[in-house]
Amino acid sequence: MGTKLKIAIKLKKLDSIGIDLVAMCVNDIVAQGAKPLFFLDYYATSKLDENKSFNVIKGIAKGCEISKMSLIGGETAEMPKVYNNDDFDIAGFCVGIAEKKELLPKVNINQDDCILGIKSNGLHSNGYSLINHMLEQKKIRLKSMIGQQELGSLLIRPTKIYTDILKIKSFKKVKAVANITGGGLTENIPRVIPINKSILIDFKKLKIPKIFTHIQEKGCIDNKEMLRVLNCGIGMALVVSKKDSNNIIKELKRFKLQSHVIGSIINKKGKPTVEYINI
């Protein structure tokens, strides 16, 4: 969050950064198969600027509204000896609920189960240490055009909130959900896979959006590093049976969640890993 916040401050656009804060918490709750209930926030700064804090907290309230949960409180702290000038930071805490027997991941993940990739709406909130470094080195510029939009506006697009996944009729058939955050596809999907199973992903099926290819080209970053640092266009990954995959894709589409098969589960002894083909 902090590194994305730096770009929002540069662009003087703070009304959506609160949505990112909520999304980063809520999407982890969704990955457990749980429904978010309430949220608390923490805002720390050197000296309180009411206009800035209003815009940030307005974004937090909007994120809670999207997530259909309550914002039940929070704390604001002025710490001039900790933060310099106009610097500030935000943090959040979310609680969700689920029946214990319905928590994810499930134990029945098998070889040839499908990995569904749900489309992200951008970089979400990870990989921004790399982005800020590239900006400092002038390898990328906030005013550069990606299609019809400036790179800066795309970089601060708020993280998508995926609570609608819980609403699909076939959600009980979903075996695992991975929130693709820091570590990208490479490190996040293995976290929800049992030992002696691994993941096989077809790189050509990822349909990587232009913003990621722009970053890759300007930074001369290889494919494997991109997949470890950024979400590469996949916001969430679902593990489902092959026989259920088409129906679940259709149900997700009804909630405007675009998804497609990007890989499968394979048998492999030891700790789960991701293997890529056509990379």
Describe this structure as you would to a colleague.
This protein is an alpha+beta fold and 279 residues long. The chain folds into 2 domains: 2-101, 60s Ribosomal Protein L30, Chain: A (2-Layer Sandwich), CATH 3.30.1330.10; 114-124 and 159-277, PurM-like C-terminal domain (Phosphoribosyl-aminoimidazole Synthetase, Chain A, domain 2, Alpha-Beta Complex), CATH 3.90.650.10. The chain contains 9 helices and 11 strands. The protein has helices at residues 2-10, 17-30, 50-67, 128-136, 151-155, 184-188, 210-219, 223-229, 242-254; strands at residues 35-45, 70-78, 88-97, 114-119, 145-146, 149-150, 176-179, 197-202, 234-240, 259-267, 274-277. A 6-stranded mixed sheet has the order 7-9-4-10-8-11. Strands 2-1-3 form a 3-stranded mixed sheet, covered by helices on one side. Helix 2 (17-30) runs parallel beside helix 3. The protein is globular and about 55 Å long. The two termini are 30 Å apart. The model has no long low-confidence stretch (mean pLDDT 95).
Short key terms for the protein model shown above:
279 residues, alpha+beta, 60s Ribosomal Protein L30, Chain: A, Phosphoribosyl-aminoimidazole Synthetase, Chain A, domain 2, 2 domains, six-stranded mixed beta sheet, three-stranded mixed beta sheet, 32% helix, globular
Would you summarize the structure shown here?
The chain has 279 residues and is α+β, with helices and mostly antiparallel strands.
Show the helix and strand layout:
Elements: H1 2-10, H2 17-30, E1 35-45, H3 50-67, E2 70-78, E3 88-97, E4 114-119, H4 128-136, E5 145-146, E6 149-150, H5 151-155, E7 176-179, H6 184-188, E8 197-202, H7 210-219, H8 223-229, E9 234-240, H9 242-254, E10 259-267, E11 274-277
Parallel strand pairs: 1-2, 8-11
Antiparallel strand pairs: 1-3, 4-9, 4-10, 5-6, 7-9, 8-10
